[in-house]
Amino acid sequence: xxxxxxxxxxxxxxxxxxxxxxxxxxxxxxxxxxxxxxxxxxxxxxxxxxxxxxxxxxxxxxxxxxxxxxxxxxxxxxxxxxxxxxxxxxxxxxxxxxxxxxxxxxxxxxxxxxxxxxxxxxxxxxxxxxxxxxxxxxxxxxxxxxxxxxxxxxxxxxxxxxxxxxxxxxxxxxxxxxxxxxxxxxxxxxxxxxxxxxxxxxxxxxxxxxxxxxxxxxxxxxxxxxxxxxxxxxxxxxxxxxxxxxxxxxxxxxxxxxxxxxxxxxxxxxxxxxxxxxxxxxxxxxxxxxxxxxxxxxxxxxxxxxxxxxxxxxxxxxxxxxxxxxxxxxxxxxxxxxxxxxxxxxxxxxxxxxxxxxxxxxxxxxxxxxxxxxxxxxxxxxxxxxxxxxxxxxxxxxxxxxxxxxxxxxxxxxxxxxxxxxxxxxxxxxxxxxxxxxxxxxxxxxxxxxxxxxxxxxxxxxxxxxxxxxxxxxxxxxxxxxxxxxxxxxxxxxxxxxxxxxxxxxxxxxxxxxxxxxxxxxxxxxxxxxxxxxxxxxxxxxxxxxxxxxxxxxxxxxxxxxxxxxxxxxxxxxxxxxxxxxxxxxxxxxxxxxxxxxxxxxxxxxxxxxxx
Length: 612
Ligand code: F6R
Prior knowledge:
Elements: E1 3-9, H1 13-24, E2 31-37, E3 42-48, H2 51-60, E4 67-73, E5 88-89, E6 95-103, H3 106-115, H4 128-135, H5 141-148, E7 154-162, E8 169-174, E9 179-183, E10 186-190, E11 202-205, E12 211-215, E13 218-222, E14 228-229, E15 234-235, H6 251-257, H7 259-267, E16 271-273, E17 279-281, H8 290-295, E18 298-303, H9 305-322, E19 326-330, H10 331-334, E20 345-351, H11 357-368, E21 372-377, H12 383-387, E22 390-393, H13 406-425, H14 431-453, H15 456-465, E23 470-475, H16 478-494, E24 497-502, E25 519-524, H17 530-541, E26 546-552, E27 564-568, H18 576-595
Parallel strand pairs: 18-19, 18-20, 20-21, 21-22, 23-24, 23-25, 25-26, 26-27
Antiparallel strand pairs: 1-4, 1-10, 2-3, 2-4, 5-6, 6-7, 7-8, 8-12, 9-10, 9-11, 11-15, 12-13, 13-14, 16-17
């Protein structure tokens, strides 16, 4: 959701900014821009459309200079256009800024600034910021920011360049991510770690309202009152290759192929071989101690999108294994319905990026109620990781494609592990049962590999179904949730209208949409519900639907009822959401490929949704 970069140093800024933006393009791709100080003025170049449009303009009229800021936009206020693209400047172009977030009180500020003579060019909320800085400018950017920041309501990450102090960039944030890094030739700002990996793996994180003064020789940090702060760099394990396509046509395909490793890498730090060769949790790997585990009266899980689907699966697991009543809340809805959070609740947020605005807000709501909070996230040092009481990381590596794939399976692994740990600590699972359970989890990586390697099945089906306009996923119990995730993958990248339905619910209305040739994917991996699924499949078949069934290897009864069968390796019912996700993702991917959509950057979407 909008990517920000900044550079000041001894090298040319434009190529560094453009490379950084290309690594952040997944955050927004409806327009892009840069502002570079050329020795006498801040030269702004911006263009509607993908980064390649901007690159073309820069190639036609290059900008030389060693300091600058850049932005890739996901529009909120004002349509994608050259004028609405960032950077935005004050009236005489002495201050340029790029922004991620939403200034909620921009209308009121804009009116006040217009009354003072400021002339606005764009329809954005962002443009108030350079005008405000100019209006209150004291000659010191640090002092000015200390005055101006309290006037802004909403969320922001800002990077600021000014003609007055041309070597120096400033940046600040509230509820939107920003990271900084140093290299031997200068200092860098970015919205996200992948943009820095080429230069450093030691990054500095800003807290809300911190201000950083970024100079070629180093970075100084200040709190909102201007007191200097010391910050330790955080070392990240990701390397630059992890943020590149590595020969794959798309990041999404690469990330699907990384799932076996992501599953393994997420589980491996949590488990070890104990006595009698039995798997168990490593000491201190699971963060909730026995006393706290036993004090939990209920669990509330809150998340968005794919991470929400992990939460939905996890509800069953926490209830089944640990016997803890669990509810799952869409984060964007949670705080607006006056939720009741009881004492002794455990509040879990699940977020790949750790920066999703709604998820952070839900976490803060829970913290205000004084309950213990736990974050499952893929990004070390992200906001949810820093704010929750406990954190368990997924080790999926950077996920760049907008459609989440390897994060889903890794988050699910953590949830399975957490449920088992709580179950053991609450006396609901024996050590032997745990060993068997962990053994099954440990097998999932190899089983995922089998599914990833059989991608041709989905590629072939996608070729056949490339022209469909709508489709359905149906399933029961855990499969009903797998349907939601598979349907989301198909919708968001191939743009095929797809509904996920609990199979038994179809006949209560939606069945009227099934006609001759309608594609209905029936996920049927829950052993006790196969007969029920067969009945629901028959309801579809007699109305002309074309049914593809996702079943386990050993399933024999469904084959004769359907048009096609996609098999997943044998595993306990509880773990099928991990395996079944893979053919669903591959089908979404190949459908999108057949239909010629922009797979890694689907229309209207952006990764890391840092606005409400
Ligand atoms: C779908 C997808 C989104 C994210 C959602 C939450 O493929 O990627 O639905 O799952 O925006 O993002 P995180 O997990 O970063 O909070």
